Amino acid sequence: MRGRLVLALIALALAIAGFGVYGALIVTDGGSTSPTPTPRAAGTFVFEPAETPAPETSPPVSPAPSSPPPVAPPAAVQATTQATVQATVQAGDPQEVAVRYLAAWQAGDLAAMAGLVSAPPADFAERHRRFDAELRITAPPSLTPQTPRRRSALEAEVPFQGVRQITGLGPWPFSSVLHLVRHAGQWRVRWTPQTMHPSLGEGRSLRLTETKVRRPATLTREGLPFPSGSRAGDYFTGLEGTTTELKLRELPSGRVLLASPSKGGEAARTTISQDVQSAAAHALDGLQAPAALVAIDLRTRQVRAVADTLGGKGAFNGLYPPGSTFKVVTAAALLRTGLTSRSPVPCPAAYTIPNARRFTNAEPADRGVLPLTTAFALSCNTTFVQQSYERLRDGGLRAEAADRFGFREKPGLSSCRIRPHTDLNELGSDAIGQNSVQASPLCMAEVAAAAATGVWKPAVMTERPPADSPPEVPIGDEVAAQLRDMMGAVVTQGTAAAAGLPPGTAGKTGTAEVAGGHSHAWFIGYRGSLAFAAFVQNGGSGGATAAPVAARFLNALR
């Protein structure tokens, strides 16, 4: 075993110091020797010898009998080998410099890189920074050295593979070579622009270009172009019919090194309905305030229309207090405690929660005792605050909202939330859609759809729900039937009676107070195969502003 170690060390010393031996002698179990090629695994720094093989026709030359090669005792050979290796490392070798240079490059340490370069240009660091900035490279490259090669006693090279990340294009693999020279007793990198990338030599350069190209327009579910002036904002890629194509080119050859994926192919169809989208867009005509109207199919919950001037996809993930439209959720929670739509409930002009704050209605009159349906249709705040205090103060309101109507953190298109109340004042405000209750128009359209069908399901914009879509939640047939009666009364005898809504419409108005500004106007509901939500930011009264928007939308579909 000791003999094999000694011979291996001899081979290592010859490979590092002499660079003229192609293999190591391996002692077999029988004591014989055979040449074995030097391993060449990627990333392993074992220098190959200078390429000076003898001609194939030359016969082997035997040493003269009078000059036999000296043979040192094993102990002396081992000592000599160790001294040679130690002297090589102490003097500095190309392997050590290459390792340090590539490690500094991966770490983005330009100063350390320059310190390992023989005569670096004055703008060494700036060239690297400019190269990265011009090509939108987001981080230092990842680098993998390949098998090094020794060209002579004064020159060596280390090929390496690298990967850069380009914004908009992704990973950009490349190959280059680290050239090393021995100067004044030290090994250093001989840097040229090709060290950064081989395409930077001989008058060549790299350029990232952006080109506007046509792409297939996104289509409605019928295969038609979106209606002009659809107010769909940035929900559907391709509405403008162009996209930005990125290409990394080598100049002046014009060779493309990297390009963004092609946007060609067939035009994509959406779940949007041509007629429903057109009606939703025109329903917002004439409004001075930002607004949104979304509509979803009751059976599939596919989005059939989204008209949005809120900006930033506000119709789907903007969060606004829903005001009295949230009373659909509060009513469902109360019905679950034993109340019915016909239960008599008081609707005073004002109600003060015991040891807490005072609540009032939009209309100051004391309406006495009314059926719950009538209190709902007239949007009586005091009724819902009092009943929530008496029946839901142990957490029933938030449980109803979160567990059955989607007011929780969840995957999906819509956004809505409610926090646990910390005192009775918060409970009273939450019950009428203020305080911690916030929702997007799409979330409230999902609430209307749940009341219409008896099942809460998230809205989708695909033919089938995504794999991570939340499961549907039954809200109960009896509860849903009573909610439908109550929402129908809003249109026939309540706060939306004067809005011009077509027969068969059911819904709920909402006027959400906003600190320091005009109230938000809401109307949610359903008719036929659609559920919808109309929202006007700082639009004032839900009955006077949002319900007429919904009426224009539904009347355009008749």
Task: Looking at this protein, list some descriptive labels.
alpha+beta; 31% helix; 23 strands; 5-stranded antiparallel beta sheet; 558 residues; elongated
Nutshell version of this structure?
With 558 residues, the chain is of the alpha+beta class.
Structure report:
- The protein has 558 residues and is α+β, with helices and mostly antiparallel strands.
- The protein has 16 helices and 23 strands.
- Strands 3, 4, 5, 6 and 7 form a 5-stranded antiparallel sheet that branches.
- β5 and β6 (170-183) form a beta hairpin.
> What is the residue-averaged pLDDT?
83
| Gap from first CA to last CA | 95 Å
Binned, the helix content reads 25-40%
Large-scale geometry:
elongated
SS elements, strand count: 23
User: What does the radius of gyration come to?
Assistant: 39 Å
Structural class by SSE content: alpha+beta
Please write out the topology.
Elements: H1 2-18, E1 23-27, E2 33-37, H2 74-90, H3 94-107, H4 110-115, H5 124-134, E3 142-145, E4 149-150, E5 155-166, E6 170-183, E7 186-189, H6 193-196, E8 205-214, E9 242-251, E10 255-259, H7 274-283, E11 291-297, E12 303-308, H8 314-317, H9 327-335, E13 344-346, E14 350-352, E15 358-360, E16 369-371, H10 372-377, H11 381-391, H12 396-404, E17 416-417, H13 424-431, E18 438-439, H14 441-453, E19 455-456, E20 473-474, H15 477-493, E21 506-514, E22 517-527, E23 530-536, H16 542-557
Antiparallel strand pairs: 1-2, 3-5, 4-5, 5-6, 6-7, 8-9, 9-10, 11-12, 11-23, 13-16, 14-15, 17-18, 19-20, 21-22, 22-23
